[in-house]
Amino acid sequence: MKKIFLIVFYLVIIIGLVSVPAFAEGDHPKGCTVMIAGKNTTVDGSVLFVKTEDDSHKEVDYLWYIPGKKYENGAVVKLRAGGTIPQVGETYAYFWDECPGTSFSNGLVNEWGVAFGSNACMSKEDPVAEAEARGDLVNGGLGFKFRMILAERAKTAREAVMIAADLLDQYGYSASGRNLNIVGPNEAWQLQMVRGKIYVARKVQDDEVAIIANTFSIREVDMSDRGNFICSPNLINYAIKRGWYDPAGGEEFDFARAYSPHKHHTNPSNTRRQWNMARLLNKNFKITRKEAEKGKMPVSVKPDHKLSLEDVFSIFRNHYEGTELDQSEDYKNSPHKTSYTICNYTAHRTTVVQQRNWFPPEIGTLIWRCLDQPCSSVFIPWYVGATIIPEAFHKAPESLYATKRDLMDFHFNVSQETWELDMESASAVFSLLGECVDADYKKVISKVQETWSNFENLEFKLQPVIEETAFKLYQEDKALTKEFLSLYSGSQALRSLEVAKKLINEIKSKLWGGRR
């Protein structure tokens, strides 16, 4: 039984709840939302990479630390489709934010601070069998393991893109289409791939904020500008060959228009989320919602103010408040019943990767991680140098640290116990908190948000002190620095878990008098 049903069962039995708002899967399309803020757009000069994972409110999330390894000559990487590619002699360590059983809902940040996360983007390309038949997919193509391969091999975002391009040229990409965000302390890139061997990578400029939902976003492409674009050699010619772009029509090549199916590129699920981010970034954003719904959104926005962490947290907690799209009636209904929101009922994880190139990656790359819908949850800081993770944040029926199975078998052949409600699991606790809040959003959300606001404000105050101390330690003892950062991140995470449990009990008491 999936977690959502166990949560509802728990509420009915334990607190006498008569009914919990039910949201049909079909009413809430799965859709990940991404924002990448260049370093000149932020208050402190950091690069900010914000990413939601929106699959289903049934999902769980585990955070693992994967050490680097050494391999003998002849070692290979097994691909999910059955093929293999050669392994390198030594790999880098990385954090794996795992969503068990999923192919592409896995976030990674390696020891050099290079972060990876993706958006599904449908393309016009042919099915897998046809792509394989003409040689555009070799060994089944790249898929689930692709970002892991890049995390294991790249010290910088640009290096990751170059490795990716080389692998795509050899093996091709298996999914219909995808935007793979690759963000490091110095550069950020968006690699947009079409099934087979077609791709374009665009560097996010320092003075812009890139925005994307679940349709290709790169528009104009300058194939001669290798500093800002890395493309498959036949990117434009292939589109011409397929009849997706006609240079005789007098218009410049537009990647998104050429390769995106029109119905997906103009789907309100995509255009409204993009438009909402844009209008929150710049109050003078000129494209109207109606124009956005015709597929006219740009790849990026110039914000009208410098962005702070609080600003981006707020954007990703938004439900169109103050616009005609808000269907909550001043929170009389849960805002998650509003269609196509950034913060929605299927968002099971939101991360903000804060990149500061003036620190070593262990301190400068900070993953602010939020479980379940962010409006009723909290962002916890995980430093890349924090290599020890409390068990509650990867409490699985079988631990990756103890299993004798290989990683792919472990990830895809998942025990049904994974989705059972376990109040010692952070993923379950925050999902339950989200369910409780949605039971009467208007009545309880103020208390919940005030609690988490105080929690986050303390984190912001502690951050410079923690980092100053960590940097002093780093200059003397790197191992001790990692121990220090592990203790800090772990303690904040465990404290958030206790606060979440307390909030659940307070909501039970407020809404249902604590009845059992």
Helix content: 25-40%
Structural class, by secondary structure, is alpha+beta
Share of β-strand residues: 15-25%
CATH C-level class is Alpha Beta
Mean pLDDT: 93
Strand order of the largest sheet: 3-6-7-8-9-10-11-13
Indicate the CATH topology. Answer: Penicillin V Acylase, Chain A
Indicate how many domains the architecture comprises: 1
Count of DSSP helices?
15
Structure summary, number of beta strands = 17
Per CATH, the architecture is 4-Layer Sandwich
| CATH-level-4 superfamily name | Penicillin V Acylase, Chain A
What is the straight-line distance between the termini?
23 Å
Shape: globular
Q: In terms of per-residue confidence, which ranges show pLDDT below 50 for 5 or more consecutive residues?
A: 1-29
Largest sheet features: 8 strands, antiparallel
Radius of gyration: 22 Å
